[in-house]
């Protein structure tokens, strides 16, 4: 329980003492990370927590499974990294800093709730908290583009959660239960439940930005400030994806036709977004389109499970999601430090930036290794499992998408890298980014790389 | 007795050295040099320990499960040690050379950091016990050599880096596809003497046939098979020690070594023969041998000439592999070592000419022999070795390749060998002639500082002289128990048992 409440508590603290935000916030993020670690490794899992002794079907229940804890770990680790970065980035702006941290704690609260809740309405509440705090964050620096992007973001996220809520209402009217567990037992295939799930899925897909519903993402993610982009790309979309994943596999709501459709959209999305990423001229746009492409991979799982009923595709997706969370957050933070030198993220201005911030280029490169799915990163092992599953069933088209996506990602990742490595265009001695702006990115990216060696441990843990 | 520890340490040494060097300040010359040299020496010692151990029948094997039965395996078998000892030895020499070469140039920490990581990858490739591990290190090699290729950061080198990536990432993708595909058929992937695919000959013959060419494409990129060699001459913009390492041990050898593993320890020589895979390989390697030599004739830029010569010479290894029969195998494998030593000598020398007097073209080299007699001498030894003059190392390779061709019943291959030797002579002898006998037309002004009585910096001079001595030694003492040839004979016995 304290997992959920800690962020709330610290959100209040930061709100009350905005001037001390640096100490309070970092303490809060540290405590959160520690608590998650403790819960994940030193308490019995899986376990069900009933709030105020009110059990299902009426009360609120939390379901702590190894899977949800893995995502909590991802989230608290990313928050810690981003928090360290933000603390330095907003050093001279107390107001912005305290606003950032209040919203970030709410986001953390929402995500944690999303990962551990077990009934569809409670999950809706979590989804709304996540959505609203994410919008608040994306509008943190009120430039014209950022405000416009966050308005679109607001609109889509409301439509998304509205559709989801409508689905929940339909399900509740049909079965009279909200708990996922009870729902999966009661569920029978009927037009109502199909429509209900269709609505829920549509809402979540919109929020996760699956092609072609991705239109809002590049703008929102590229125009936000770097720590916010890191949170949005690394974590927020994982929230809605995780929810869909749980409804599909734990709630028993998934079906083959829809899975096939999602798989196809995912595949097309990978290729489409990768090509667009290749065409961008701004660094953060490239990273944002790469996120859209990576989301495409995640949705391939719904198509793959159709013919591979083993756990392999699901494990692959789990690894990819974790890897992307760490690597993409690291990459956005690294980009933030690189942009710090010139204050602009056009590739042309960033030429030779490696001479000023070699450490950040290094972090960017390591994160790119995971995004491209090269060994020995965590991303590689996710891709390996999915590719293996595709080959074992001779699904050559799926395999082809993976291969093509991999090649394209190498293209759009090495393009900025070779720009960073080039000779600087002018010999001005520019200011190097402060060390604490560079280290968090390194930590997160190295995490994505090094965890590859522990793949089998992660999978063993996820299986309980 | 199985030792699990040593193979891992061998890889970790270079990793540790590489990572710590990144954190050193540019000016920390002494610390960096100490780290570099002690890393290289420790590595060489460890390899020697393992060589002796393998002779005594010890096993060195480290494994860890990564995911679902896929293991990370480092294993020191005889073949691994052949490549491993070559790379450890040449790393030491190249490190010494690079320290001399890069004196006072910028970004040395970055350079030596990646340099170490690159060597880690190549030792990893040597010790890989299965295709999966091989793939990991093969990709790491791409990633760690890229920053070395573009080290100078000029527009030309960034462009070369781009082309290098284009080729090698393509190769990496092919390797990934082939590895996954093969694993989905066999469910096993550990290298084994004589191969492990025989059981699938009946059921999956067509797929195995296709897969072989996917693998060949993947390795062919790095081994610079004709058509896939486009990156190699362009990558010449890299600093001389990098070119030396790339051509002698790291990149092209990784490709060639991959083919060796593929034919002997994945498919098995018997199955490769039965599936008619060796003939296409033979044709390809012969084509590459002739192509590389012919193009080399027309290069005035010394490093480019050497680059095309590499294209040609590496395919000798593949030719040996494609000849069914122990003698061909011996010729190919021994050339893995011999080519490495000869080519690194030549590149060291080319680097010395360029670094000392800024001479990069063959046509400018007239009279240089008198100015730099020792370097020129080493160059001459390397060049004559390449041509295959007895008793130098290159002769041993060519002799066994010729015998192997006759044994396998391909008389025309002898013709290719003779033609290629003539071509080798045609593009190397003019260089040697210009060095020693042509009349000097220009005055040489050194543009680096060195001791007035030496011909160049000492650190640049010693490595090529040592490798030149080895080129002579490997030829003269080929039949000695500790020579590369004897070791290769041991491997061949294991493969054909």
TrEMBL record, chain A:
InterPro entries found in the cross-reference section: CPA3_Na-H_Antiporter_D (IPR050586), NADH_UbQ_OxRdtase (IPR003918), ND/Mrp_TM (IPR001750)
Superkingdom classification of source: Bacteria
Coiled-coil intervals, chain numbering: none
The keyword Membrane is assigned to this record: yes
Keywords assigned by UniProt, alphabetized: Cell membrane, Membrane, Transmembrane, Transmembrane helix
Protein family: Belongs to the CPA3 antiporters (TC 2.A.63) subunit D family.
Name of the protein in question: NADH:quinone oxidoreductase/Mrp antiporter transmembrane domain-containing protein
Source organism of this protein record: Sulfurospirillum tamanense
Lineage of the species this protein comes from: Bacteria, Pseudomonadati, Campylobacterota, Epsilonproteobacteria, Campylobacterales
From TrEMBL, chain B:
Keyword entries, A-Z: Cell membrane, Membrane, Transmembrane, Transmembrane helix
Location within or outside the cell: Cell membrane; Membrane
Domain of life: Bacteria
InterPro entries on file: CPA3_Na-H_Antiporter_D, ND/Mrp_TM
Pfam families: Proton_antipo_M
Membrane topology: Multi-pass membrane protein
Residues spanning the membrane: 6-24, 36-55, 78-99, 111-128, 163-188, 208-232, 244-264, 276-298, 310-334, 377-400, 412-437, 458-478
Name of this protein: NADH:quinone oxidoreductase/Mrp antiporter transmembrane domain-containing protein
Organism classification: Bacteria, Pseudomonadati, Campylobacterota, Epsilonproteobacteria, Campylobacterales
């Amino acid at each position: 329980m304290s997992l959920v409440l800690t962020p709330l508590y610290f959100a209040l603290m930061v709100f009350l003492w905005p001037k001390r935000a640096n100490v309070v916030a970092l303490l809060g993020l540290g405590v959160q990370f520690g608590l998650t670690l403790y819960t994940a490794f030193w308490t019995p899992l899986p376990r069900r927590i009933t709030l105020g002794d009110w059990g299902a079907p009426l009360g609120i229940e939390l379901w702590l499974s190894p899977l949800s804890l893995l995502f909590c770990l991802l989230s608290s680790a990313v928050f810690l990294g981003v928090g360290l970065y933000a603390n330095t980035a907003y050093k001279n702006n107390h107001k912005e800093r305290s606003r950032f941290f209040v919203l970030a704690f709410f986001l953390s609260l929402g995500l944690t709730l999303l990962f551990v809740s077990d009934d569809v309405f409670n999950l809706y509440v979590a989804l709304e908290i996540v959505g609203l705090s994410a919008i608040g964050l994306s509008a943190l620096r009120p430039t014209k583009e950022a405000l416009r992007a966050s308005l679109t973001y607001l609109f889509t996220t409301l439509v998304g959660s509205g559709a989801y809520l409508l689905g929940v209402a339909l399900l509740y009217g049909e079965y009279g239960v909200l708990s996922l567990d009870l729902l999966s037992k009661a569920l029978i295939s009927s037009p109502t439940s199909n429509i209900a799930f269709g609505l829920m899925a549509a809402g979540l897909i919109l929020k996760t930005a699956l092609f072609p519903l991705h239109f809002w993402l590049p703008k929102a993610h590229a125009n936000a400030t770097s720590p916010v982009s890191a949170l949005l790309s690394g974590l927020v979309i994982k929230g809605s994806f995780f929810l869909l994943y749980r409804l599909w596999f734990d709630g028993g709501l998934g079906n083959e036709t829809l899975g096939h459709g999602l798989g196809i959209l995912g595949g097309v999305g990978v290729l489409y977004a990768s090509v667009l990423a290749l065409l961008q001229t701004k660094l953060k746009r490239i990273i944002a389109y790469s996120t859209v492409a990576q989301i495409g991979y995640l949705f391939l799982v719904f198509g793959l499970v159709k013919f591979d009923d083993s756990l392999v595709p699901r494990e692959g997706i789990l690894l990819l999601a974790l890897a992307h969370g760490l690597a993409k957050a690291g990459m956005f933070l690294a980009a933030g430090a690189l942009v710090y030198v010139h204050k602009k993220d056009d590739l042309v201005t960033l030429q030779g930036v490696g001479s000023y911030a070699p450490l950040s280029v290094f972090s960017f490169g390591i994160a790119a290794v995971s995004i491209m799915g090269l060994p020995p990163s965590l991303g590689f092992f996710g891709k390996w499992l999915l590719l293996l599953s595709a080959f074992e069933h001779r699904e050559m088209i799926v395999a082809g998408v993976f291969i093509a996506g991999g090649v394209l990602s190498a293209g759009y990742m090495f393009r900025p890298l070779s720009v960073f490595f080039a000779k600087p265009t002018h010999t001005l001695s520019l200011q190097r980014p402060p060390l604490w702006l560079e280290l968090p990115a390194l930590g997160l990216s190295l995490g994505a790389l090094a965890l590859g060696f522990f793949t089998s441990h992660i999978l063993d843990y996820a299986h309980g | 007795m199985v030792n699990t520890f040593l193979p891992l340490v061998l890889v970790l040494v270079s990793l540790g050295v590489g990572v710590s060097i990144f954190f050193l300040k540019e000016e920390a010359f002494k610390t960096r040099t100490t780290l570099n040299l002690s890393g290289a020496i420790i590595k060489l010692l460890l390899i020697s320990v393992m060589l002796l151990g393998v002779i005594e029948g010890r096993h060195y094997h480290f494994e860890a499960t990564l995911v679902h039965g896929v293991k990370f395996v480092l294993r020191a078998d005889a073949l691994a040690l052949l490549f491993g000892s070559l790379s450890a030895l040449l790393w030491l020499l190249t490190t010494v050379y690079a320290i001399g070469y890069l004196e006072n140039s910028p970004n040395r920490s970055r350079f030596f950091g990646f340099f170490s990581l690159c060597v880690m990858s190549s030792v990893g490739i040597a010790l890989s016990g299965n295709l999966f591990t091989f793939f990991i290190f093969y990709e790491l090699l791409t990633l760690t050599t890229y920053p070395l290729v573009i080290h100078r950061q000029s527009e030309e080198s960034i462009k070369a880096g781009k082309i290098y990536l284009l080729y090698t990432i393509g190769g990496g993708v092919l390797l990934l596809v082939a590895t996954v595909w093969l694993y989905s058929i066999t469910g096993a992937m550990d290298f084994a003497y004589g191969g492990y695919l025989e059981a699938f000959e009946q059921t999956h013959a067509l797929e195995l046939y296709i897969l072989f060419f996917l693998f060949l494409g993947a390795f062919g990129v790095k081994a610079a098979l004709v058509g896939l060699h486009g990156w190699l001459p362009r990558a010449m913009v890299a600093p001389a020690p990098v070119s030396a390492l790339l051509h002698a041990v790291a990149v092209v050898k990784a490709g060639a070594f991959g083919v060796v593993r593929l034919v002997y320890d994945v498919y098995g020589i018997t199955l490769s023969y039965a599936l008619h895979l060796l003939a296409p390989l033979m044709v390809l390697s012969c084509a590459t041998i002739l192509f590389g030599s012919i193009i080399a004739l027309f290069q005035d830029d010394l490093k480019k000439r050497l680059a095309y010569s590499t294209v040609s010479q590496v395919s000798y290894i593949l030719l040996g592999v494609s000849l069914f029969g122990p003698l061909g195998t011996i010729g190919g494998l021994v050339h893995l070592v011999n080519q490495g030593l000869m080519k690194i000598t030549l590149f060291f020398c080319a680097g010395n000419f360029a670094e000392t007097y800024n001479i990069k073209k063959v046509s400018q080299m007239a009279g240089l022999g008198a100015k730099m007699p020792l370097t020129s001498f080493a160059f001459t030894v390397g060049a004559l070795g390449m041509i295959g003059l007895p008793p130098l190392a290159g002769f041993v390779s060519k002799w066994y390749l010729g015998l192997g061709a006759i044994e396998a019943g391909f008389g025309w291959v002898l013709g290719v060998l003779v033609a290629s030797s003539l071509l080798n002579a045609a593009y190397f002898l003019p260089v040697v002639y210009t060095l020693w006998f042509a009349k000097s037309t220009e005055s040489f002004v050194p543009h680096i500082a060195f001791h007035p009585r030496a011909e160049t910096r000492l650190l640049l001079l010693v490595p090529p002289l040592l490798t030149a001595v080895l080129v002579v030694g490997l030829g003269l003492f080929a039949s000695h128990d500790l020579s590369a040839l004897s070791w290769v004979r041991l491997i061949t016995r294991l493969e054909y048992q």
